[in-house]
Amino acid sequence: MTDAAVYPLTREQEAELAARAIDARQWSYSPYSHYPVGAALLTASGKIYDGANVENAAYPDSICAERVAAVKAVSEGEREFTAIAVVTQNDGMPCGSCRQFLSEFGLDAVVLIANLKGEIVKRTAVRALLPDSFGPEQLR
Ligand SMILES: [Zn+2]
Known about the structure:
Elements: H1 11-25, E1 38-43, E2 48-52, H2 65-74, E3 81-87, H3 96-103, E4 110-114, E5 120-125, H4 126-129
Parallel strand pairs: 3-4
Antiparallel strand pairs: 1-2, 1-3, 4-5
Bound molecules: zinc ion.
């Protein structure tokens, strides 16, 4: 992750993703958890798809910001993720379901955790968050 030769993002791209995630967070529907989350996903095509968590009175039907962004991207034809920025009030990390979901489209995707000021507080990758993952290769 620290190898500049393979790290896919510029500092400007990181800042843009963090800003987009902060912006998307305003659309969170989180009346039950009161835990708004914003995400911004950069795909290999260069487009950014944002997302916010959307809760439901039937709690398990709620969906995380990361998966909202991912579904928006995939449903518009994207198949390869480069990076995702996630913003919460306290540097929350993607949940297990989101780690699995993101891995389908980019084990090497960068995961940025940003704070409400847009500062990157953690840089990691889906692969690091989901070691020994189950993926498409198991079903071939
Ligand atoms: Zn999640």
